[in-house]
Write a structure and sequence with these properties.
two-stranded antiparallel ribbon, single chain, 34% helix
């Protein structure tokens, strides 16, 4: 079974983080919600407190197939300031493992040089931070092992793209049907 870690810092965007957790768990992917700073619960950008599965210090990164960074302005800054987490993000990228980020968080990949020559997207205010990327307005971009998405409104697209990577296109499409989701222009 595939396993991913979703990382939380205070001020994370709740829908972006929890949509990935929910949809991926529904698809049978093991997901751990990890506090970057060791709290048992982390406060989101809209005042929603979310209980964590683990603290960063307790994570077995070797067990993960992907690292996911949700957005939120303050949450993104908190994740990027977490030196041990950024070391693991760098390691995953250098080893050719999957890294994913949504909203403001793709800026972290831009700052770290991961996006040079890749298609990428982010929240519009953060597009200037996608250093070296071919910036798109698509809801989600999968370019090699780097996945980026634009924001809260693209959270389902982002989560389904992650599910497709680990479960296949048919399983992701089945999940879209089960949650009664249709991307714009795909209504039945």
């Amino acid at each position: 079974m595939s396993k991913i870690g979703v990382f939380f810092a205070e001020g994370f965007e709740e829908i972006e983080a929890l949509t990935v957790v929910d949809i991926c768990r529904r698809c049978g992917i093991e997901v751990e919600m990890v506090s970057a700073y060791g709290e048992s619960s982390v406060l989101g950008s809209h005042g929603i407190m979310v209980g964590m599965d683990k603290a960063l210090a307790d994570v077995d990164f070797a067990a993960y197939d992907m690292l996911v960074l949700p957005g939120g302005g303050k949450g993104t800054k908190g994740l990027e300031a977490c030196v041990p987490l950024m070391a693991k993000v760098d390691e995953f990228y250098q080893e050719g493992k999957f890294v994913a980020a949504i909203c403001a968080a793709p800026s972290i990949f831009g700052h770290r040089g991961f996006l040079k020559g890749r298609r990428a997207c982010s929240y519009p205010d953060f597009e200037s931070h996608l250093e070296g990327a071919l910036v798109t307005k698509g809801p989600v971009e999968v370019d090699g092992k780097v996945i980026t998405s634009r924001g809260m409104g693209t959270s389902i697209d982002f989560a389904l793209a992650i599910a497709e990577i680990f479960c296949g296109r048919e399983a992701a499409e089945d999940m879209a049907d089960k949650i009664v989701y249709r991307a714009k222009g795909q209504e039945k």
